[in-house]
């Protein structure tokens, strides 16, 4: 999946803007109120629709509310071209402020005095194919990492995550949520309990250990303890600390790499 550009019109404070993306890291800068968050939210809505369609998920896709329409505008619109295996697709969103509008003609005929102006959100052109899990790069996964992701939380797994399976790989992927240490600890404990029976569980834990060493040099042996609910511990040199006690920057890195690794493992069990 290659995201090439994003065009938005009448989304919150943005009257009209187009953003073109290059391979690698893209940085969006601007003064307060310029619309940086609105751009990220527009990407969130488009990516959630793509992930839902491509993976055949039952979960509801993210969307815009009436309050997201720019003051004084009648509708907002978003155009999002995306390339999948050299095939071009375009996701288009049009959300009017009102569900109907008056007709210039039809006075005295109640059924013809107004016409519907429904909201639309769909892929245009060639139908988007479904991922099988056997693709070289695995299933397409996208995650929103807001600033709250670095905040520690001991909240336990949601029903979607606890149920496991491929659906768990996409649960709360676009939610503005905190780093749920309790959820990850419970998942790691469950993998450790079945690693002798399921090779995938052992590989999942090994993958977590690998990314910790790669992105946080000096840290190792990430593990849940035996408390109820379990806590996440990690070794820093000769000392053992709780993950919630590491610095904000280190915890932010952990939030990113651990969440992505877990989702990739769950979404690609083979």
Textual characterization of the structure:
Helix 4 packs across helix 5 and helix 5 (199-215) packs antiparallel against helix 6. The chain has 270 residues and is an alpha+beta fold. The strands form 4 sheets. Strands 1, 2, 3, 4, 5 and 8 form a 6-stranded antiparallel beta sheet that branches. The chain has a 3-stranded antiparallel beta sheet with strand order 11-12-13. A two-stranded antiparallel ribbon has the order 6-7. A hairpin with a 7-residue loop joins strand 11 and strand 12 (232-236). It has helices at residues 36-55, 159-163, 165-168, 181-194, 199-215, 248-267; strands at 2-3, 5-11, 14-20, 75-84, 87-96, 100-102, 114-116, 120-124, 152-153, 179-180, 219-224, 232-236, 239-242. 30% of the residues lie in helices and 24% in strands. It has 2 domains: 2-124, Rossmann fold (3-Layer(aba) Sandwich), CATH 3.40.50.300; 147-267, no CATH class. The longest helix has 20 residues, at 36-55. The model has no long low-confidence stretch (mean pLDDT 87).
Chart the SSEs and their pairings.
Layout: E1 2-3, E2 5-11, E3 14-20, H1 36-55, E4 75-84, E5 87-96, E6 100-102, E7 114-116, E8 120-124, E9 152-153, H2 159-163, H3 165-168, E10 179-180, H4 181-194, H5 199-215, E11 219-224, E12 232-236, E13 239-242, H6 248-267
For the largest beta-sheet, the strand count, sense and barrel status come to: 6 strands, antiparallel
Structural class: alpha+beta
Question: Mean pLDDT, nearest integer?
Answer: 87
What is the count of DSSP helices, taking H or I runs of 4+ residues?
A: 6
Poorly predicted regions? none
Q: What is the total number of structural domains?
A: 2
Proportion of helical residues: 25-40%
Question: Quick one: CATH class of the largest domain?
Answer: Alpha Beta
Looking at the structure, what is the overall shape? elongated
Please tell me the CATH architecture of the largest domain by its name.
Answer: 3-Layer(aba) Sandwich
Could you give the order of the helices and strands?
Answer: EEEHEEEEEEHHEHHEEEH
Distance between the termini: 20 Å
Number of strands: 13
CATH topology of the largest domain: Rossmann fold
Radius of gyration computed on alpha carbons: 22 Å
Name the assembly state: single chain
SS strand fraction: 15-25%
């Amino acid at each position: 999946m290659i995201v090439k550009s994003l065009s938005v019109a009448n989304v919150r404070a943005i009257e009209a803007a187009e953003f073109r993306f290059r391979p690698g890291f893209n940085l969006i800068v601007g003064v307060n109120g310029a619309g940086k968050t609105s751009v990220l939210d527009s990407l969130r809505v488009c990516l959630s629709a793509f992930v839902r369609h491509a993976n055949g998920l039952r979960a509801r896709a993210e969307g815009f509310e009436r309050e997201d329409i720019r003051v004084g505008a009648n509708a907002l619109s978003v155009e999002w071209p995306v390339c999948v295996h050299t095939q071009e697709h375009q996701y288009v969103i049009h959300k009017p402020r009102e569900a109907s509008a008056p007709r210039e003609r039809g006075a005295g005929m109640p059924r013809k005095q107004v016409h519907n102006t429904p909201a639309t959100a769909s892929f245009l052109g060639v139908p988007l194919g479904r991922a099988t899990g056997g693709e070289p790069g695995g299933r397409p996964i996208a995650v929103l990492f807001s600033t709250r992701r670095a905040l520690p939380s001991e909240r336990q797994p949601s029903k979607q995550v606890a149920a496991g399976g491929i659906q768990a790989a996409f649960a709360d992927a676009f939610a503005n949520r905190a780093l749920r240490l309790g959820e990850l600890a419970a998942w790691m404990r469950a993998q450790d309990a079945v690693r002798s029976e399921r090779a995938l569980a052992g590989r999942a834990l090994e993958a977590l250990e690998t990314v910790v060493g790669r992105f946080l040099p000096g840290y190792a042996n990430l593990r849940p303890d035996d408390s109820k609910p379990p806590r996440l511990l990690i070794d820093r040199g000769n000392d053992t600390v709780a993950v919630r006690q590491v610095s904000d920057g280190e915890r932010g890195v952990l939030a990113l790499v651990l969440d992505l690794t877990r989702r990739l493992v769950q979404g690609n069990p083979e």
